[in-house]
Automatic annotation (TrEMBL):
<dbReference type="InterPro" id="IPR036282">
    <property type="entry name" value="Glutathione-S-Trfase_C_sf"/>
</dbReference>
<dbReference type="Pfam" id="PF00043">
    <property type="entry name" value="GST_C"/>
</dbReference>
<feature type="domain" description="Glutathione S-transferase C-terminal">
    <location>
        <begin position="171"/>
        <end position="228"/>
    </location>
</feature>
<dbReference type="InterPro" id="IPR036249">
    <property type="entry name" value="Thioredoxin-like_sf"/>
</dbReference>
<dbReference type="InterPro" id="IPR004046">
    <property type="entry name" value="GST_C"/>
</dbReference>
<protein>
    <recommendedName>
        <fullName>Glutathione S-transferase C-terminal domain-containing protein</fullName>
    </recommendedName>
</protein>
Amino acid sequence: MGGEDERRRFLFVAMPINHFGERVRWTLDLIGAPYEEYTVGGLISAFLRGRSVPQLVDRKSCSMIGNSDECLAYLSAAYAPSIADTRLRAKALSFLRFDEQTMAWDVKLNQLGHLVQGWAYFYVLALDMTPEGCLTAWGAFEPKVPLMHRLILKFGHPFLRKFMRLVFELSNEEVRDRRRKMIESILDEADATLSKQKFLAGDDLSHVDITFSALLAPLLGARLVFAPKSSYANGRFSSFNGAMDRMSDKWPRALLEFEQSLLKRPCAKHCISLYESLRSTQL
């Protein structure tokens, strides 16, 4: 397959703040996969289409993959071995390797992703918080999100917040504290691992490092996601640029304080280093 068809082999569907989606997007960029992206408003796909995001569509095989773990496994098996550039192919296969170390981390990081989601939402969707923070994260002000989705988010926010608070148990402080304790435990393990080796799964970069960085990024809002020049999603979302400054006191203080302590950790420095060195390049 060549020309325009090859350039657009994959369709990637995700919402703006979608840390599981960011791991797939970043992988696609690193291995040079030909794809186009369609952005949906936060939660819209689940409510209107009954499907969560991210989704990866391979137009060559007419396949649709709907889980980030499966997306990476699919790219490892169905795309990476066919990369024409032998140097990039070797790097992609190494990066997407599934061995004892990477699979053990995959289990922990799946858990981390859901913990980060639930813990952060406790504050962002609190009843005394203005909606600007979550609307920014969901894409209500993002030009790449369809206008109808943006309108649904802006006018449907009260219902969405009520629904999310129920599903994620966001009124339960014990659940909140348990989530934070489990997040800290995984971060402690990452710190300990990085004190002994350069990368989380050995001496070479793997999808584990990119996954970890993508999942941790939402907790580094001021430093990465909503920075003056956002590096999240390789700068795809213009509405994220400078969003933290615009939101000012509308972002939960608890998340800002956690970010300050997080920045002192080796694992956060690892995350930031990878965003700075690898978010806009190929392997």
